[in-house]
Amino acid sequence: MQTTVAAGYSTTGSLADTRQSGWAACRMATLKNTRQHLPSATTALLALLNTKARGIAVAERPIIFSGTDVRAILDGRKTQTRRIVKPQPPATHQFSGWCIATTRRKDEGGAVWRAGEDGVRLIDPHRANCPYGQPGDRLWVRETWAEHPDFPGCRYAIYRADPECEYDTDRWRPSIHMPRWASRITLEVTEVRAERLQDISEGDAMAEGAPLELAPIDYVRLGAVASRRGGFIRMWEQINGAGSWDANPWVWCVEFKKIEESRHG
């Protein structure tokens, strides 16, 4: 099966910054409904597509973090998160790039994998949009919480991730049930990448808030040294199960900055 390629797309692995010329090229590609190989798929470009060109407000979505991750975000040690692409592209497909202009508007800003290319069309494309948004969008953090026992019904929250929390309550509520009003952390997405899990660098692992540790395989290697990457591997397998690192799935790498913190407890 062959499907027409998006009118404009970038073959880079990330949604990075661009100049006004990129926006102009994309507009021209959209008007002509032809494929353009733009130098980069970009923060500014997608922001224009989502806001200026269509008048769409910045999107806001919830995202769940563990207590450990929440503490790392509050301390400024965590500015990235990796989440598995669902569903995974077929094993036979290669990463093609990002849709930045297409007649199928729901595909814009999404990643594309392909089985092949005939010069005009992508063969059997697999498309996926990052559920955590695009650069400029916001994420509000969900974490384990409870209503303040001294102020029931007053929209005053306490958080289990806080080491100084002195309240021993049996009414902790799962993060999935946190309402927007109780969230104390808002993040702004600054970059989105699609990459293989094992492509993570030492610098990326540090931005994930990973500690210095030996990777599991390094315990049997003479002279092995601890690394942030080793710490990330352990953290990943704790969350996703044994063998999940070796599976090397495609992941969304979402970079963010903390823009708001309004404590309720």
Major sheet strand order: 4-2-8-9-12
- Total number of beta strands: 17
Instruction: Name the shape in a single word.
Output: globular
Compute the CA-based radius of gyration: 21 Å
Structural class: alpha+beta
Query: What is the percent of helical residues?
Result: 10-25%
Succession of helices and strands:
EEEHEEHEHEEEEEEEEEEHHE
* Strand content range: 25-35%
**Contiguous helical run count:** 5
Main beta sheet: 5 strands, mixed
Uncertain ranges? 1-11, 16-45
- Mean pLDDT equals 78
For the termini, the CA-CA separation is: 56 Å
Features:
17 strands, alpha+beta, globular
Would you summarize the structure shown here?
The protein has 265 residues and is an alpha+beta fold. The chain is built from five helices and 17 strands.
